[in-house]
Amino acid sequence: MAEPATEEDRQRPAARRREREAGGTRGTRIKVSFNDDEHALVKVAADQENQALASWVGRVALEVAEETVVPTSVTAKAVVAELIEARKQVKRIGTNYNQIAKVLNSDGEVTDAQMAAVHRALVTAIRRLDEATLQLMRERAEKG
To answer: What is the pTM of this model?
Structure first.
């Protein structure tokens, strides 16, 4: 006799299946093997997208094969996120420089403290961009 459903099972939405393809049914099957750590990792990823594990593995494999996504390491994702954040900071600093130039061109006054703050922000943003760029270069060299 089957176990009664727990409260958690009743509240959790059913895992999504991959969309049906216009090309017909999927009759070809493959076996994929994972060790316990790998299985736990892909299970978490599938659960985060509310997909059945086999469905998630199939979708991700097709996306990589069709080159609609490029697989990246977790480290590379963190480095790319750092580059995006540094880019935002540089853009903000550029806005500050433009505001300072506007004040100076209109015979206004900019204090040494204001100039020093903008300069520190610029140096920090450049340093972050340099570190992230070097990290990406190291990862590419390791793969390469």
So the answer is: 0.43
